[in-house]
């Protein structure tokens, strides 16, 4: 039985293979050869496009929803490319989110801010 998130797992596997093999003619390879700077600029671009689509969403019915979903897919894809580039698996991110589950976002952020103030050893 398939799970709705199976395509993300398969995509992550493909991106990990591309990070290792760097096949010629692959858009993913081109991004990875540009490094974190190139991938990061695409993430910024796609995040901006997702925000624009979210702002247009409510007034455009199904078309607005489809555009928003499309842009979310682009942002997720480019984020997964960065994960693969850095050798981080999607399951690691899922584990981090599971660790935070049930913790208020404000409490979690405050704990990170407190750690920044601690002296490094």
UniProtKB/TrEMBL annotation:
* GO BP annotations, alphabetical order: L-histidine biosynthetic process
List, in alphabetical order, the Gene Ontology terms for molecular function in this entry: ATP binding; phosphoribosyl-ATP diphosphatase activity
**UniProt keywords, alphabetically:** Amino-acid biosynthesis, ATP-binding, Cytoplasm, Histidine biosynthesis, Hydrolase, Nucleotide-binding
Pathway linked to the protein: Amino-acid biosynthesis; L-histidine biosynthesis; L-histidine from 5-phospho-alpha-D-ribose 1-diphosphate: step 2/9
For the region Disordered, give the residue spans: 98-121
Protease among keywords: no
* Entries under InterPro entries matching the protein: HisE, PRib-ATP_PPHydrolase-like
Keyword Magnesium among record annotations: no
What Gene3D superfamilies does UniProt report for this protein, alphabetically? MazG-like
Spell out the CDD domains in the cross-references.
NTP-PPase_HisIE_like (cd11534)
Q: What is its EC number?
A: 3.6.1.31
Task: Give the similarity note.
Answer: Belongs to the PRA-PH family.
Compositional bias of kind Basic and acidic residues = 109-121
Q: Where in the cell is it found?
A: Cytoplasm
- According to its UniProt record, which reaction does this protein catalyse? 1-(5-phospho-beta-D-ribosyl)-ATP + H2O = 1-(5-phospho-beta-D-ribosyl)-5'-AMP + diphosphate + H(+)
**Identification of the protein by name:** Phosphoribosyl-ATP pyrophosphatase
Q: Name one GO cellular component term.
A: cytoplasm
List the top taxonomic levels of the source. Bacteria, Pseudomonadati, Planctomycetota, Planctomycetia, Pirellulales
Q: Identify the Pfam families for this entry.
A: PRA-PH (PF01503)
